[in-house]
Amino acid sequence: MSRIDEFLNGVRTVAIAGHVNPDGDCVGSCMATYLYLRDNFPEIEADVYLEHFKPEFRFIEGIGNVKSRLLDKDYDLLILLDISSKDRIGVAGSLTEKTGKILCFDHHVTNREQYTWLINDPQASSASEVVYRYMDPDKISEKCAEAIYMGIVHDTGVFQYSCTSPETMRIAAGLMEKGVPFNRIIDKTFYQKTSLQNQLLARTLMESIQLFGGKLIIGYLKNRDISFYGAVSTDMDGIVSQLRNTAGVEVAVFMYEKEPGVFKVSLRSSEKVDVSAIAQKFGGGGHVRAAGCVMQGSVYDVINNLTLYLERDLV
Ligand code: AMP
Ligand code: MN
Ligand code: MN
């Protein structure tokens, strides 16, 4: 098996970037890569680019150095993690045009981009698991292990989703042996909600609708509700999973209006439906059981457009 080392010949400066609205796996895999380079390749100068993330991720070592604006700087290598497609990179997106070498670690079935090196395993639980495989376990510090562990926990829903494999559990066990505070990471970054998050969740559940004999559940928050609560995108994390937990549901959809007439749509499937195929019809992507896209129109336009495709799988 190859190691990250093999991509670092002659490299002095590295930019590390994840996707817009960075989730636990995105932040975990980016920070783990940063910490691995910092600990083992001190001669390399690395910058991490990430947009706004949950304050609960602040315990990760080195996260205070993360850049949310692009520095006027050239890099020898760009490392991308968990991004799925180039148009989701956000602030560091323009680096794909001007950086000579790009290394991408991913686990999105819909990633079909061209890079110098694309290491994409759609069977892997998380980008954190993929990048872990390219690290020497003996060179992973406890702080780096915490970042990888957090990434795996978030993308597996605490080892619950079908993307969890025996290999995922073996990796998690190894990280646990390094002393990661696993219970604190799971509790504080995954399960714990602010009261605002709980209110948004409660309101969405109260107003959710079920179609196709209960096999499809749809929840939504409109722009005016989000403004009323003063909520930001990370406050809506996890709502779609709770919708999916409803008995009898095959597909859960959660959408929020990020600007008038523009919805961020999250799709989750229990067993049968390939939601990445549906998200791709609307210019998005993701995984078979978890995917997303952006759609235009009213709540009812979005529902009508989605049900056109979902009907085939659910009736
Ligand atoms: P989300 O519903 O935003 O949590 O996304 C679920 C999964 O789909 C994640 O793995 C995302 O990275 C992926 N995803 C979400 N939106 C998009 C998009 N517009 N294009 C490609 N992948 C996406
Ligand atoms: Mn992600
Ligand atoms: Mn991921």
Question: How is this structure best summarized?
Answer:
This is Exopolyphosphatase-like enzyme. This protein has 315 residues and is an alpha/beta fold. It is built from 11 helices and 11 strands.
Give structural notes.
By secondary structure, this protein is an alpha/beta fold. The protein folds into two domains: 4-191, inorganic pyrophosphatase (n-terminal core), CATH 3.90.1640.10; 195-314, Diaminopimelate Epimerase, Chain A, domain 1 (Roll). The protein is 35% helix and 19% strand. The chain contains eleven helices and eleven strands. It has helices at residues 24-40, 95-98, 127-132, 142-155, 166-177, 182-191, 195-206, 223-229, 239-244, 275-281, 299-314, and strands at 13-17, 45-49, 77-81, 101-106, 117-120, 209-211, 216-221, 251-259, 262-269, 285-286, 290-296. The strands form two sheets. It has a six-stranded mixed β-sheet with strand order 6-7-8-9-11-10, sandwiched between helices. Strands 2-1-3-4-5 form a five-stranded parallel β-sheet. A hairpin with a 2-residue loop joins strand 8 and strand 9 (262-269). The longest helix has 17 residues, at 24-40. The termini are far apart. 41% of the residues are buried. The model has no long low-confidence stretch (mean pLDDT 97). Residues 19, 84-85, 88, 110, 266, 284-287, 290-294 line the site of adenosine monophosphate. The site of one manganese (II) ion has 6 residues, from loops.
